[in-house]
Design goal:
Elements lengths: L1 H12 L3 H38 L1 H8 L6 H25 L5 H17 L5 H13 L4 H31 L13 H27 L4 H22 L5 H19 L7 H11 L13 H12 L5 H29 L16
Helix pairs in contact: 2-3, 2-13, 3-13, 4-5, 4-10, 4-13, 5-6, 5-13, 6-7, 7-8, 7-9, 7-10, 7-11, 8-9, 10-11, 10-13, 11-12, 12-13
């Protein structure tokens, strides 16, 4: 490992004016992309408001805004802020070689990108990888840690589908007992868990047979990232609660928005509808526009949440909160990262 560190040290010392210029150009491109995405987000919510006003059947949903409980809407805002903090805590665990200031800014920047580019969190991870690479962190280490944080955040969502779906189907939790809404998603989630473990084992073996190639680096990152996730889970590090908080508090924010317009449904119903409905967030469009809203509203209605006008307006408000809070806070954090681009990490941190 000493030879690797020596090579990387030479490279980071070689970050001259040319590299700095490249970094400055790249950060400008990233800034422009994020800015344009946020503008698209604003246009999207303007269009949504226009639709609510223009369509008679939807106008009744907009009329419900005046009856919202401001305390619960305020609670949803606080819960979303705490959800962002949960992600920052988890990020600090995964990238513990970074200092706390960089960790907080980079994690918030990732959330900003994730809020405006819906690809299941991969866009934010890509931004983090780019920033870390500019600071001299090795490609294999970035890939391994990126897989790790993706696995940990996804594990909470997938695990919750099984933990809620099966008991609900058995009648142990309040909600629908229709297999297509409970047992089927749980079975798919369980299959994903087992498939991921099998894929990781295969990837590590395949990487050992293809050393020295980019494919080998990717395969090794998948295998090692999943293995690292299992080690962390068995270690019971308290910072793993950040992954739970990231999912749970965002879920409770939706629950609070529904409660702001009358009696809220069972939390378990909201949780299951959220887990299945948010699958639309994997569609690669800014903020999952309309796809996520429609999916959440549809799932809540399928689980029997009524009236529909309350559901529509509650989901729109929840989405405004869950997108704009990380977008604004993360954008400010991203702008502050300008000074970090191209600056190497402390000795040993980039490869340790």
């Amino acid at each position: 490992m000493k030879g690797v560190r020596d090579r990387q040290g030479t490279q980071t010392e070689g970050f001259d004016e040319s590299a700095s210029a490249d970094g400055a150009t790249a950060i400008e491109v990233q800034s422009r992309t994020l800015r344009n995405s946020i503008v698209s987000l604003a246009v999207f919510f303007a269009i949504e408001a226009a639709l609510l006003l223009a369509v008679p059947d939807l106008r009744s949903a907009l009329d419900e805004l005046g009856h919202a409980d401001p305390a619960l809407i305020g609670a949803a805002v606080v819960l979303e802020l705490l959800s962002c903090v949960g992600y920052a805590v988890l990020f600090g665990l995964v990238f513990e070689m970074l200092d706390r200031r960089l960790t907080s800014r980079l994690s918030m920047s990732e959330l900003a990108v994730n809020s405006v580019v819906s690809v299941s969190g991969l866009a934010g991870i890509a931004l983090g990888a780019w920033v870390l690479r500019s600071k001299g962190v090795s490609v294999d280490r970035i890939a391994r840690r990126s897989v790790l944080i993706f696995v940990l955040t996804s594990a909470v969502n997938v695990g919750a589908v099984v933990a809620i779906g099966v008991p609900m189907w058995l009648g142990l939790l309040p909600g629908s007992q229709r297999a297509v809404l409970t047992l089927l998603p749980a079975a798919v989630a369980l299959g994903l868990i087992l498939g991921t473990l099998a894929l990781a084992g295969w990837a590590r073996g395949a990487a050992a047979r293809q050393t020295g190639t980019r494919r080998a680096v990717a395969l090794k990152a998948i295998g090692d990232g999943v293995a690292d996730a299992l080690v962390l889970i068995r270690a019971y590090d308290w910072r793993l609660l950040g992954a739970v908080a990231y999912w749970l508090l965002d879920n409770v924010a939706l629950y609070a928005c529904l409660g702001a317009f009358g009696e809220a449904p069972s939390f378990w119903v909201v949780a299951m509808a959220y887990l299945v409905g948010m699958l639309a967030n994997s569609i690669p469009i800014p903020g999952g526009m309309l796809a996520v809203e429609g999916s959440l509203v549809g799932m809540l209605l399928l689980f029997g949440v009524r009236p529909a006008s309350h559901v529509v307006v509650a989901v729109v408000i929840y989405r405004a909160i869950s997108l704009w809070i990380p977008a604004v806070i993360g954008s400010l954090a991203f702008l502050s990262l300008r000074r970090e681009i191209g600056k190497p990490l402390a000795s040993g941190a980039s490869s340790g």
